[in-house]
């Protein structure tokens, strides 16, 4: 999976971080759950500039009242930024000048090995104000005046970001990664993710294993199985447990999102004893929206009292609660005892093959024609939908384009019917598929 450079936005409250974040992003990737002391939901987005893509993280997710809390939070925020990002945008306010908090942040940032760009924000009127010279006193080479609110110099800022990132290096690294199947083990805290990771790494031939607390580049574990290489994404993060109680859910969601972004396949760990929770739905929903193949692993199966129907009952309950994941295989495992952990790896390979399936136009149209013959699209507003033909232009996730007389006439139920027919004919087990309708 292609990996993009990540830019983190840091700064004290009110300098314009969220305004800048919203300016930069083309596409909001996630609305992360609000936890008690997190008052912002915007946190993670994707930006595009001159054909290149980068991820943006607004690390200032904590909005605190007292100055003591703010100061304490700065340390946390900056640590997160350094951990998450390749480049840091340090936002300051030209109207207020350098404040003690700005100095504190810059002290921390100077010690890290990330590139830092100072965005001197609220420079609304370029002609009326001087260059923001005073901000060079913070000790960074790059200081750029911007106005987040009025969209001034944002392009120059993006140029500066890319001047500081070796984009070819990123591309080369992702090309090297092509042969390795990236797996994200997602799930809420205590669902058994770390136990599964340890079980797998204990069973398989490990090539690279991270030590907790080492650099950002070594957090993935790579192992080999038969002729295939797998990468367990972000496993150091899995092992490390947050100390801040209220933030556990918030940051575990953020981590899950970032792991899912980088994954080819997502293994969603569900605690069988607890059943499906809102957090499970949220994480799974995100994997689904991202088009990733998903395996639902019902873990701690050793703790469940079973008879011959138990598995079926659990499977139905999972699908009932997460209707959007009916295509995802369910497997009952025990990460602790190792039961069916090998099968999880088999399934990962299988669903990955499924998401790479490409159906020929001829075969696809046979299936579509038959589907239409069996169940003619119902008329809508007195007009009838005509499907002329379909193609599959993309894989991973598979995309199907239907050329029709009028896309407005496609009813949700009929779209689902077509999706079911495609799945009946070709499988696509475990992978979301996308149907698009275009006027011809
Ligand atoms: P954050 O706390 O750092 O995320 O700051 P916000 O993005 O919430 O912005 C704080 C305030 O500054 C808001 O009232 C914004 O409208 C304002 N603001 C942000 N960028 C600019 C700017 O470029 N010029 C001016 N004049 N105001 C801005
Ligand atoms: P994580 O927070 O998702 O990484 O969860 P952990 O791997 O730390 O597991 C949380 C707790 O559940 C630990 O006490 C594990 O020993 C336990 N656990 C994990 N998997 C299983 C399992 O399959 N069966 C049982 N009985 N306990 C498990």
TrEMBL record:
For the EngA-type G domain, which residue ranges apply? 5-169, 181-356
Q: Which domain of life is it from?
A: Bacteria
Q: Which InterPro entries match?
A: AAA+_ATPase, G_ENGA, GTP-bd, GTPase_Der, KH_dom-like, KH_dom-like_a/b, P-loop_NTPase, Small_GTP-bd
Binding-site residues, GTP 1: 11-18, 58-62, 121-124
Q: Which GO terms describe its molecular function?
A: GTP binding; ribosome binding
Q: Which UniProt keywords apply?
A: GTP-binding, Nucleotide-binding, Repeat, Ribosome biogenesis
Keyword match Repeat: yes
CDD domains xref list: EngA1, EngA2
Do you know which Pfam families this protein is assigned to?
Answer: KH_dom-like, MMR_HSR1
Describe the family membership recorded for this protein in Swiss-Prot or TrEMBL: Belongs to the TRAFAC class TrmE-Era-EngA-EngB-Septin-like GTPase superfamily. EngA (Der) GTPase family.
Q: Identify the HAMAP family for this entry.
A: GTPase_Der (MF_00195)
List the NCBIfam families.
GTPase_EngA, small_GTP
Q: What is this protein called?
A: GTPase Der
């Amino acid at each position: 999976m292609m990996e993009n450079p990540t830019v983190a936005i840091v700064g004290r409250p009110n300098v314009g971080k969220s305004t800048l974040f919203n300016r930069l992003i083309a596409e909001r990737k996630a609305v992360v759950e609000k936890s008690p002391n997190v008052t912002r939901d915007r946190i993670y987005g994707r930006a595009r500039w001159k054909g290149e893509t980068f991820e943006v993280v607004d690390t200032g997710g904590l909005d605190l009242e007292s100055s003591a809390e703010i100061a304490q939070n700065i340390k946390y925020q900056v640590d997160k930024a350094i951990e998450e990002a390749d480049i840091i945008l340090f936002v300051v306010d030209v109207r207020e000048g350098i404040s003690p908090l700005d100095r504190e942040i810059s002290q921390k940032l100077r010690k890290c090995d990330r590139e830092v760009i100072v965005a001197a924000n609220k420079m609304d009127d370029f002609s009326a104000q001087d260059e923001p010279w005073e901000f060079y006193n913070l000790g960074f080479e790059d200081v750029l005046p911007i106005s987040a609110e009025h969209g001034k110099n944002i392009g120059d800022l993006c140029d500066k970001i890319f001047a500081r990132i070796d984009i070819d290096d990123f591309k080369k690294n992702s090309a090297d990664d092509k042969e390795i199947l990236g797996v994200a083990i997602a799930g809420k805290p205590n669902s058994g993710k770390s136990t599964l990771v340890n079980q797998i790494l204990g069973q398989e031939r490990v090539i690279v294993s991270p030590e907790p607390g080492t650099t950002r580049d070594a957090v993935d574990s790579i192992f080999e199985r038969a002729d295939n290489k797998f990468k367990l994404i972000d496993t150091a993060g899995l092992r490390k447990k947050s100390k801040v109680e209220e933030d556990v859910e918030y940051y575990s969601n953020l981590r899950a999102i970032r792991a899912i972004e980088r994954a080819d396949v997502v293994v969603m760990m569900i605690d069988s004893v607890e059943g499906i929770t809102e957090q499970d739905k949220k994480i799974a929903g995100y994997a689904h929206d991202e088009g990733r193949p998903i395996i639902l692993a019902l873990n701690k199966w050793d703790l469940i009292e079973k008879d011959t129907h138990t598995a079926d009952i659990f499977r139905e309950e999972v699908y009932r609660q997460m209707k959007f994941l009916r295509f995802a295989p369910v497997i009952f495992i025990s990460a602790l005892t190792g039961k069916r952990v090998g099968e999880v790896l088999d399934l990962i390979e299988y669903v990955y093959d499924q998401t790479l399936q490409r159906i020929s136009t001829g075969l696809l149209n046979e299936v579509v024609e038959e589907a239409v013959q069996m169940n003619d699209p119902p008329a809508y507003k007195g007009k009838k939908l005509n499907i002329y033909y379909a193609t599959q232009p993309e894989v991973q996730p598979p995309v199907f384009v239907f050329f029709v007389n009028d896309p407005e006439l496609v009813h949700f139920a009929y779209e689902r019917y077509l999706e079911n027919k495609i799945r009946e004919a070709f499988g696509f087990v475990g992978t979301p598929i996308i149907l698009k309708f275009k006027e011809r």
